Amino acid sequence: MIDVHPAPHAAHSWREFLIHIATIAIGLLLAIALEQTVEHFHRLHQRHRLEEALHSESLLNRRIVAYNRESVDAVRGNIRTNMTSLDRDGKNFVPLPPMHDTFLPFIDTAWVVARSTGGLSLLPDQLAESYWKVEVLAEASANALQSLADARKKVNSLVHLHASPTELTADERAALLRAYSEEDQELGNLNYIVLSYGYMNEAVLAGRVPTINDLADESRDAQKTEAQPAHP
């Protein structure tokens, strides 16, 4: 709060009166300027902290991209091996478990907190837009992981339907083959999203905004892995 004290004595002329008013006005202007300067540097500090938090999460998510791609490759290879075995000799089918079978969600804590507290207004428009695109793909990845989990439940329910998979009937083996195919396609979709996420995440880390042509080229490359045939 700004305190304005009365003059020690009454003004005896217009000149003294105007000087007094000017002194008060200059004091008020200096106080406002000082307040705005403090606020500016406070917001600047908040912005730098937010940018650092987002950048740190992007570096962690770079590692998650690599990890999830490795998981996709391992699980997809395992599924296709099992599909081949089931298709060729279903009566003696024994599924092989994947060696690398875990997927990780992307980290977006800093973005979620900034969005809920209005902190995104601190970021430059271009940077906020880039991180928003990354967040959209993070949400798509979370949805894809849920769909993959649902597809895997269907596979597991059939694999463990009897004491041994060799006891599956012909119809049950056919249903298991379809369930494997659905899981394989869910993995393809997840892989497409992870590749797209990785591309946008690297763009943000590099401080660049992809053009429409860049995004189109990246999308075509990623789609090549989305729905590959079940048998290599």
Features:
rod-shaped, 232 residues, mainly alpha
Structural commentary:
With 232 residues, the chain is mostly helical. It has one domain (14-223). The chain contains five helices and no strands. It has helices spanning 14-88, 109-117, 125-159, 170-206, 212-223. α1 packs antiparallel against α2, α1 (14-88) runs antiparallel to α4 (170-206) and α3 packs antiparallel against α4 (170-206). The radius of gyration is 31 Å and the shape is rod-shaped. It starts with 13 loop residues before the first helix and ends in a 9-residue tail after the last helix.
Give a quick summary of the entry:
Helix 1 runs antiparallel to helix 2 and helix 1 (14-88) runs antiparallel to helix 4 (170-206). The protein has five helices and no strands.
Q: Which spans have pLDDT < 50 for at least 5 consecutive residues?
A: none
State Rg: 31 Å
Helix content: over 70%
Fraction of residues in β-strands: under 5%
Q: For the record, give the distance between the C-alpha atoms at the N and C termini, rounded to a whole number.
A: 74 Å
Order of helices and strands: HHHHH
